[in-house]
Design brief:
single chain, about 180 residues, alpha+beta, Peroxidase, domain 1, 2 domains, 8 helices, 4 strands, about 15% strand
């Protein structure tokens, strides 16, 4: 599946950048379409059923694209997935497409988990620190985990920066166990 998702994601990103489309808008439209399909079992079944003709499926996505105000490139992207019977990978491809667009635009993606809701100023401060680490602009996704007790954990790619109280306590515990 990884090669399928990355192949289609890269190809769609190529279309976006070669045609100088609004990348952020295209990602948002693709994500909203993917959410619609993943959240609607009947729609998933219709789009994924080989016995339903591709032209009928395309008529359906034309209607959906018009209702969602989705651009032609995003509509065409879904049509390609229908034609190649890859609709079941839509969510994964769309996620990978977002990552590919961010990479090409020079953004670092950061997942930031904090013990509590952070203020706008704290968001700004954390993102500035991550920008210093990565030397890239940052696109951050925030979530909460009260088990951290305090502080935050930042994940950028496969690198994790643990500034949480829970992480500090675990490191102290490991040091105490190691010294005994």
């Amino acid at each position: 599946m990884a090669s399928v998702t990355s192949t289609y994601a890269r190809a769609f990103a190529d279309v976006v950048f070669m045609n100088r489309l609004d990348a952020a808008r295209t990602v948002q439209e693709a994500e909203s379409l993917a959410q619609l399909v993943s959240g609607n079992r009947e729609l998933r079944e219709v789009l994924g059923t080989p016995s339903i003709a591709a032209d009928q499926k395309r008529k359906l996505i034309d209607t959906l694209a018009a209702r969602l105000n989705v651009s032609n490139p995003v509509r065409n992207f879904l049509a390609v997935l229908i034609d190649h019977q890859r609709v079941r990978f839509l969510s994964a491809i769309t996620t990978q497409f977002g990552h590919e667009v961010n990479r090409r635009m020079g953004f670092a993606e950061a997942d930031i988990v904090s013990a509590r809701e952070l203020s706008a100023a704290e968001h700004s401060s954390l993102e500035s620190q991550v920008e210093l680490l990565t030397r890239k602009k940052v696109r951050a996704r925030y979530s909460q985990d009260s088990s951290l007790l305090g502080g935050a954990v930042v994940k950028i790619g496969s690198t994790i920066y643990d500034g949480s109280v829970k992480g500090q306590l675990e490191r102290i515990k490991a040091a105490l166990i190691g010294s005994s």
